Amino acid sequence: MAQINAKFVTSNTDFKNCPPARFPEFAFIGRSNVGKSSLINSLTFHKGLAKTSQTPGKTQLINHFIIDEKWYLVDLPGYGFAKVSKEKRKEFEKMIFDYLIHRENLTCLFVLLDIRLKPQAVDIEFMSRMVEDEIPFYIVFTKADKLSQKQVNESVDVYKNFLLEMWDELPPLFITSAEKHVGREEILKSIDELIQTSPYRIGK
Question: Residue 56's pLDDT is what?
Fold first, then answer.
């Protein structure tokens, strides 16, 4: 698996201050402590690119990374908002949803879910809003190495059945393990395919 050229660009609290919309953009988000930073580091093969922490809610800014000088990877704050004040929670929500709704070159959002858990209300609520706002997203199950293959299959089936009670069809699903780099190639391939049809791609 080849290493990716990944560089930090900037951090912001307002989407209006994000880098110019020159490249297609792929954002990653999930409930606090879902393993987002670990997955980003696994995808890029850059240990420490995204700051990991045992403390939920460490990411509190919109963080941009340029990948191979052709697309942006965006690390967004988690939407679980563990142990923050009501006022801070509102600030985070505004920052995240302003970015998701108004960022013109956002090509796809990757929503991370802990595969060890049953469907959580906070995740369902967030994804339902993405559907309502017509923001394209893929689902990424994390921490698959913590379960047996049988348990992984059962957990995914539970989620599929639950979501199909609300939606007519499901977005693409990925099963990942940051520790073992499971799912890395599949996610990068999906990003590459989306880049090919993006109006922001190089050489369009």
Answer: 46
- 47-69 pLDDT, tens per residue? 777 765 444 445 689 999 999 99
Does the global pTM surpass 0.90? yes
For residues 132 and 96, give the distance between their C-alpha atoms in angstroms, rounded to a whole number. Answer: 16
With pLDDT > 90 as the criterion, what percentage of the chain qualifies? 77
- Residue at 146: amino acid letter: K
